[in-house]
Design the sequence.
């Protein structure tokens, strides 16, 4: 089967998480992704959070599948020549160095554009132009600066970062879309272009509903679906909403049987308006169906705390999976709080390729998250991440370098 991005060559100058997420997706769609790393060191994540001595860490392996690895000292003049050859022959350069690093190396946008006017140069940076544009940024900084932390957590606690890597992996996803769009536009213009995904912007994009709420709050001073309503005052900024669902359908995380000992014995329960009568019947509160205080969604907003407390009395008598079975029969939207252990062992996720077992020559078998985007005519086969410099000779030969030149570059520690 062919792949969506067959024939696209990516010069992958990324490291850590955000950039590698992007190029891994492109590789899964069939692009030839050539990861350029420093000889002897490589991507810093190869050695971070190691669980097996001397084996590439899971941090690295799980973000660099389906790529080839080339080692190259791109600050050395001869190394720069090799990089120039790569720029001439590739379609896209993806990088997430600290601001200015590529320019300092001698590869400004103008220079790259001169070498290959068709090349797309795609970057992740922490911030776009503005007061923080020169800052180095990691995940949690982006979560804080993008509006996520101030709106996550409980009202009586500090701002909270989330476990979902929306700053790194979220920005990688945004950048991948920008690259594919730029490739599409190049079909008509024949030109490359710069693509920038700033982590702050990407997090804010994912927090779009909170900017919506800020404007509602500015105008009306109240947001009735927030847990602060009706008992507490709202301040001037969007507050932390705990586990409230935030939309028109109130929701909450409720205890299930076993919660005393199992930290994940919980269910997310949504009191969708359409199934309110069914909810009342399931929990044994048929009287609420016609009771004026509970009958309409608007009336219920005044009583969400007692409503969820009563539903929780019921969920606490069932395991989260028993509750799911019962609630799904009535189309009541709900979801179990799944631990990573449960997810890792879930057969249906293995069957769809969302959780994949991969074999690695040094570390052996490990689990990873496969391509979450499934395409009917471009299937993803997840293959292991490359060892450091595993494809240097192969790629240099493809670029036109002969054996002797490759040996000389190696002797000089340039590759
Ligand atoms: N050969 C020679 N030098 C190389 C090289 C190679 N193959 N690859 C990288 N380098 C050099 C770079 O030119 C740079 O040198 P300089 O500082 O002299 O200009 C240096 O290695 C490393 O760059 P830097 O990006 O500053 O690494 P860092 O480890 O200090 O910072 C980040 C890491 C993530 C904070 C930083 O890269 C960053 O802010 N990136 C943008 C935002 C981002 O993506 N953050 C999320 C990461 S998940």
Sequence:
């Amino acid at each position: 089967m062919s792949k969506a991005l067959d024939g696209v060559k990516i010069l992958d100058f990324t490291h850590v998480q955000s950039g590698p997420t992007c190029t891994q997706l492109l590789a899964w769609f069939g692009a030839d992704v050539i990861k350029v790393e420093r000889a002897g060191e490589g991507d810093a994540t190869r050695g971070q959070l190691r669980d097996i001595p001397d084996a590439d860490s899971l941090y690295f392996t799980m973000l660099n599948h389906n790529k080839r690895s080339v080692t190259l000292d791109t600050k050395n003049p001869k190394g720069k020549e090799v990089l120039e050859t790569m720029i001439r022959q590739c379609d896209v350069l993806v990088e997430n160095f600290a601001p200015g690093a590529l320019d300092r190396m001698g590869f400004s946008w103008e220079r790259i554009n001169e070498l290959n006017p068709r090349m797309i140069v795609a970057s992740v940076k922490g911030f776009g132009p503005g007061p923080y544009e020169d800052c180095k940024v990691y995940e949690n900084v982006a979560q804080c600066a993008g509006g996520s932390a101030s709106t996550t957590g409980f009202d009586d606690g500090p701002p909270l970062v989330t476990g979902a890597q929306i700053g790194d992996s979220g920005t990688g996803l945004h950048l991948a879309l920008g690259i594919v769009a730029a490739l599409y536009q190049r079909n008509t213009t024949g030109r490359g272009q710069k693509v920038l995904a700033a982590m702050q912007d990407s997090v804010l994009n994912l927090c779009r509903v909170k900017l919506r709420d800020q404007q509602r709050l500015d105008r009306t001073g109240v947001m009735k679906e927030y847990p602060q309503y009706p008992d507490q005052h709202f301040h001037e900024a969007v507050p932390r909403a705990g586990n409230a669902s935030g939309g028109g359908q109130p929701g909450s995380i409720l205890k299930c049987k076993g919660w005393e000992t199992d930290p994940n014995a919980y269910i997310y329960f949504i009191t969708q308006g359409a199934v309110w009568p069914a909810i009342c019947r399931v929990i044994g509160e048929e009287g609420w169906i016609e009771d004026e205080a509970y009958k309409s969604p608007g009336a219920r907003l005044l009583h969400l705390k007692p409503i969820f407390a009563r539903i929780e009395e019921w969920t606490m008598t069932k395991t989260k999976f028993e509750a799911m079975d019962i609630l799904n029969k009535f189309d009541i939207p709900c979801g179990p709080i799944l631990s990573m252990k449960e997810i890792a062992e879930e057969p249906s996720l293995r069957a769809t390729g969302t959780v994949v077992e991969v074999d690695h020559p040094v570390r052996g078998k490990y689990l990873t998250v496969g391509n979450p985007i499934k395409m009917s005519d471009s299937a993803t086969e997840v293959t292991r991440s490359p060892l450091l410099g595993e494809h240097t000779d192969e790629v240099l030969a493809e670029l036109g370098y002969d054996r002797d030149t490759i040996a000389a570059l190696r002797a000089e520690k340039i590759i």
